[in-house]
Specification:
alpha/beta; Uracil-DNA Glycosylase, subunit E; 8 helices; 35% helix; globular
Length: 238
């Protein structure tokens, strides 16, 4: 949900961050791959125009909860231009939105396109990497190059209090965010689904397995487990 006040011609912090993300050219390998996928396309989407650019986050600008995923899917967000959107019925986007909807944080349990009327409440969804990587495997250098975008996005979310890290790469990225902000969580970073790392005066982190098909179709991540992570995040908000 975009609750934005003020004159329509005023550039707001999140708008400027989104513009910087979508025009980024820092990682040639990723830009080449995304552009190529946008031309080749998948047969089911051959009549569609792919976004094929870096993907900014989306959600409620007043969010206290920030979900951090891995990266856009080649034929999902790289096609639709919105994270966790368009990877097919039962894909990671629908799996995530079902949990958010059940938790009262989304108005519908699916995420199919940028104009599907999805609205998030108290949640912003971002990613550690903003371009679709080959085989879903960004390099350490690409993760590092994209990190400033997440920093800028978080800086533009004044009420952010809890990060939900979807997967180990997102978890490591969130931990770096805490360290860079001088936050000292209550214990050492160890990734485990459902682990929560609290704080005295900074961001908290909740860890979750990523809702990829590899995890959801094998039962490693169930709907109840993801819902539990979402509810744990909400319980840590103030």
């Amino acid at each position: 949900m975009h609750r934005r006040a003020g004159p329509p011609n005023v550039t707001r912090p999140l708008d400027a961050v989104a513009a910087a993300i979508t025009t980024c050219e820092r990682c040639p390998r990723l830009r080449t791959y995304c552009s190529r996928i946008g031309v080749e396309k998948r047969a089911a989407y051959r009549d569609e125009t792919y976004w094929a650019k870096p993907v900014a986050g989306f959600g409620d600008p007043e969010a206290r909860i920030v979900l951090v995923g891995l990266a856009p899917a080649a034929h999902g967000a790289n096609r639709t231009g919105r994270v966790f959107t368009g990877d097919g019925a039962g894909g990671s986007g629908d799996f995530l939105m079902t949990a958010l909807h059940t938790a009262g944080l989304a108005n519908q349990p699916f995420s199919r396109s940028r104009d599907d009327d999805l609205q998030l409440t108290d949640v912003w969804i971002a990613a550690a990497v903003r371009c679709a990587p080959p085989d879903n495997k960004p390099t350490p250098a690409e993760i590092a190059s994209c990190y400033p975008h997440l920093v800028a996005e978080l800086d533009a979310l004044p009420r952010a209090q809890v990060l939900v890290a979807l997967g180990r790469i997102a978890f490591d990225t969130c931990w770096r965010l805490l360290a860079d902000r001088g936050v000292r969580p209550d214990r050492k970073a160890t990734f485990a689904h459902g682990a929560a790392f609290t704080h005295n005066n900074g961001l908290a982190v909740v860890a979750s397995y990523h809702p990829s098909r590899q995890n959801t179709q094998t039962g490693r991540l169930t709907p109840a487990m993801l819902l539990q992570a979402c509810e744990a995040a909400r319980s840590l908000t103030r």
